[in-house]
Amino acid sequence: MDRAPTSSAADRYRRTLARGALVFRWVSLAWITILAITEMDNIGRPVLAWVSVGATAAWTLWLSLSDSAPTRVVLGLDLALCTYLVLVSGLVIPDGSIVSNRPFFAAAYPANAVLLWAVVHRTFAGVAAAAVLGCALALSRPLNGIPFGELTRPEWQSLGGAIVLYLVGGAAVGLVARVLVESGEALARTTDELLVERERAGRLAERESLAREIHDSVLQALALVHKKGRELAQSPAVPPAEVARLADIAGRQEGELRSLILRQPQDGGTGRSSLRDALESQARTIDAPRVAVSAVGALVLDSHVVTELAAATRQALENVVRHADASRVTVFAEEDNGFAVVSVTDDGCGFDYDEGRLEADGKVGMLKSMKGRVVDLGGTMKVVSASSEGTEIEFRVPLNEKSQVNDDG
């Protein structure tokens, strides 16, 4: 199947709905096969009937094995096949029997085209596909040797009822698909907003910590300067040494206050750096879909730990670019019960993660470049993924005394 343009969250939800509709497709295929077997004596062109069943089975199998979202070409071919089944139903049974009590050869399978068009392109497309099938359903009567002029009122009513069912089905499925897709998009937006709020809460905690430090050092010193200054102002003889001491106190606290205000998050001392800054730097160098980097606090760690986690994260982002077909990637870092945790989450096509199979196939890039780095730090890597459901990779590294988190910088 041709690759669709870069997937979005909406595309992913539509693809999931389309795959869910495959259940009805297989059930309707089974019913066509049963009709072909049980009505063999009443089929006028058995070869044409079985060729049609075989083509339908092959198409259904191909759709089931494909992991990509249906493209316009696929939708067009599906509608063409279903239209063909409606028309050929007028040819494979004896003339005049299409309006009798005999089962309709195509059965419910043509409705699958209406479902697929409605799921992928919503209500109008579903109704349009239903209209095409309705025209084919009308033409199947003359193909069965029954001119329109010879149709009775009940037969016209039966034909009209079948066409209305196609139209109503297309409209209803399109509306349901629209509601589900919009709900999924709203959920994705809410998730992004929660990540932003979580980072905002982390920054607020940093600010509160900074306020405590100012209170414990700078404000206490300024209070001393204020008290001593008033005492000196009331003294007739001001000792120069006392004035110099107050000036030194004020100067030291001025410098400390400037350091607190101007210090950079990555200023963690020799051999230490900010994990958040490193992850943001890696995200900027990747030619990827929109990458959102969030972190709770500055996460100042041992530089070696930061380097290895950033490298593992970069490999994860590169895998997203090469394989995931994602529209959004989220990188989130935090300290959790003595562990530095970095998660990389995308909304791409996902995959079945089997470590043993990757090693057997020689695809050890993920194992060596990501898991190897994390294991060397005493940590673990967890992969949660499923086809069409996106992927989350989590790196969890223990913090020792040298790599302890320092949210205050």
Write the layout of secondary structure elements.
Blueprint: H1 9-20, H2 22-38, H3 46-65, H4 72-92, H5 111-143, H6 153-234, H7 240-262, E1 272-274, H8 275-285, E2 290-295, E3 300-302, H9 303-324, E4 328-336, E5 339-346, H10 355-360, H11 365-376, E6 380-385, E7 391-398
Parallel strand pairs: 2-4
Antiparallel strand pairs: 1-3, 4-5, 5-7, 6-7
Helix pairs in contact: 1-5, 1-6, 2-3, 3-4, 4-5, 5-6, 6-7, 8-9, 9-11
Distance between the termini: 51 Å
Query: Quick one: how many beta strands?
Result: 7
Largest sheet: 5 strands, mixed
* 3D shape: elongated
Measured as a percent range, the helix fraction is 55-70%
Quick tags:
11 helices, Heat Shock Protein 90, five-stranded mixed beta sheet, alpha+beta, 11% strand, 2 domains, disordered N terminus, two-stranded antiparallel sheet, elongated, 409 residues
